[in-house]
Amino acid sequence: MTSPRFLYLVRHGEAFPDGPLTPTGRRQAALLGERLGEVTFDAVHHSPVLRAAETCALITASGTAHEAAGDYVPYQPSPGEAPPHLADFAARFPERRDLAAQAEALFTGPAEGDEPRRELVVTHNFLVGWLVRHALGAPGWRWLTVNACNAALTVILYAPDRPPSLMLFNDMSHLPAELRWTGFSVRP
């Protein structure tokens, strides 16, 4: 028997380059933690990268989290498959389709059992984009056009016998205006 899985995806808070969270990132994560304080998660996962682990610790009080969902390029488009500027961007990093497949196996689809599950994954922009693209059934290269802000919340519902549903995407309603849109060079 399977039951609905609610997958809560979070991009880490603002961080110093290849380092820990900035003070802004810590505040973003704490505010998201307040927002999610009433949610009981059946599983919590975070990337092994420091900025994601710190974000996860500020969001959850349980302290029980599993390392998964790292920072990697899940798919590099073939020549002509994606606009050149996107393909060139992806080509700057090593591709890890194996890790993308592991993430799909671990985080997508209805949950086993007879109770709905709520799972939190604190990760990075690339994996949020990959899992949203997967839920929408979009071509592999489209992850390159899906961007998540720091400490933004995305929720995907995987219900039995139904296609995935994108319930929330890039929601920042828990953040005041000055803490939104970090992680991007241009603000709307």
Could you explain how this protein is built, in words?
Keywords: Hydrolase, Isomerase. With 188 residues, the protein is of the alpha/beta class. The protein has a single domain (2-116, 125-152, 163-174), classed as Rossmann fold (3-Layer(aba) Sandwich), CATH 3.40.50. 28% of the residues lie in helices and 20% in strands. The strands form two sheets. The protein has a six-stranded mixed β-sheet with strand order 4-3-6-2-7-8. Strands 1-5 form a two-stranded antiparallel ribbon. Strand 3, helix 2 (50-59) and strand 4 (66-67) form a beta-alpha-beta unit. Helix 1 (23-35) crosses helix 2. It starts with a strand and ends in a 17-residue tail after the last strand. 38% of the residues are buried. The model has no long low-confidence stretch (mean pLDDT 90).
Features:
188 residues, alpha/beta, Rossmann fold, six-stranded mixed beta sheet, two-stranded antiparallel ribbon, 8 strands, 20% strand, globular
